[in-house]
Amino acid sequence: MKSNFRLLSSIFLTLLFFRVQAQDSLRIESFSALDEANEIDDSYNPIIFKLNDSGSRYIRFMIWNQLWIRQTENNPGTLGVDGLPRKNTTDIGLRRARFLTYAQVSPRVLFLAHLGINNQTFVNGGVPAGGNSGNAGNLPVTTNPSTGSNTLDANSSKKPQLFFHDIWTEFEISNSLFIGAGLHYWNGISRLSSQGTLNLLALDAPIFNWPLIELTDQFARQYGIYAKGQVGKWDYRVALNKPFSVGEGGTFDESTNRPMAANVANDNWATQGYIAYQFFEKENNKLPFFVGTYLGTKKVFNLGGGWHHHPGATTSVDSNGSVNTHNISLWSIDGFLELPLSVEKETALTAYAVYYTYDFGPNYLRNIGIMNVGLGPGTSQNGPGNAQPTIGTGNIFYFQTGYLLPKDILGNKGKLQPYGTLSHKRFEFFEEGSWQYDLGMNYYIDGQLAKLTFQYSNRPIFENYLNIGSAGEFILQTHIFL
């Protein structure tokens, strides 16, 4: 672990060094090319095309990607791609690659389409049959035709499939009421449930903020009809959704003598929403994506709460063999603070706290590992790789805070923002709860347009329904946005 930490630290410092040197070189070349210029114009101009002379009709394009370089301390019993025990894994992968466009079709009609891929590693994230042959085709893919052996299953790592994250149309009814429909991200249950990925404070979201992720939603989106707007200092979003129908229902666990809820296919609608009161400046709600940090450009203090309710969405089996149906009922309260501290030094404090109450039915639990490259069943209740108990019936507290350091620390070479997060999860499935944390540093080369983030993440390990230890993960992320 220590040698890998030194390796990743060296990579981060090397990238920082070459960024500074490259910036100086580009600055000199820019002045040489522009003899009459007195200074460089480094302001950001969005990619916008006017559809009429006044600009009331327009279309905007946004492109971003996030790449991860990682060193992961694997969960007990993890196997590598060679089938041998693997205590640590170093890899590189694509966390996100997105393209978003929205158009003000008329002054009262907005259309948005958001496409992309996520979580491609060297062993997974691709489409079926995109494997070693390099060409998609019928399954299985034969990688050694001469012997007819060594065939791959559908867990390919190549040729990830582009898909819609969002696609919806919105109509303005009044200044305080907008109604839309489609595959949308106007989510309950918390601010973090509609978090944008362009301006996260930490390297990533904690994932349990999207409690339905990739089961009854499509990458945190569902089809539905929503209403949103602002009335005075109140900001609201509510929706009636048709969740994706998945699951075969729960079971009864003979070893612990208790029912275990799981998703079941159903035809029921769900309601969700989030309402917040904005004490200071109002936030823009043209798009659904909440900002993680404004880097001191706004003074914001909001308190909010939200819900998601999906009737008859899970089942379990009792000791008599009877099937019981349960609702998914999720609630939260949260608060967000962005406080500029010094105009001269451009320092700022960002903080966010949220408390979730999740009810999916008795002993419901999901283990999730982001971009998990570990294989095998594992010997702990976490499973292999970097998986951990993430979502389940119970309560979760999450807190994050960051401090934007004075701009003169790096001069005109960018800004630094150390941050930390703390989580406590108490799931009904286990006999005890667990704490975990992330510590990191954002290096803003050009604000949120270009940044590097280095983070250490700690996660709990469970065996026999008890927290018996922890494991760590170092991640270096490159983030680019146009």
> How many helices?
1
CATH top level label of the largest domain:
Mainly Beta
> How many beta strands in the DSSP annotation?
24
Number of separate domains: 2
CATH level 4 superfamily of the largest domain: Porin
Write a structural description.
This protein is mainly beta and 482 residues long. It has 2 domains: 35 residues; 392 residues, Beta Barrel (Porin), CATH 2.40.160. The protein is 7% helix and 50% strand. The protein is built from 1 helix and 24 strands. The two termini are 35 Å apart. About 9% of the residues have low confidence.
Describe what is shown at a glance:
This protein has one helix at residues 2-33; strands at 47-50, 58-73, 88-106, 109-120, 141-144, 149-152, 163-174, 177-184, 222-231, 234-242, 251-253, 258-260, 262-263, 270-278, 300-317, 323-342, 347-359, 365-368, 388-392, 394-404, 415-427, 434-446, 450-463, 466-481. By secondary structure, the chain is mainly beta. Strand 11 and strand 12 form a beta hairpin.
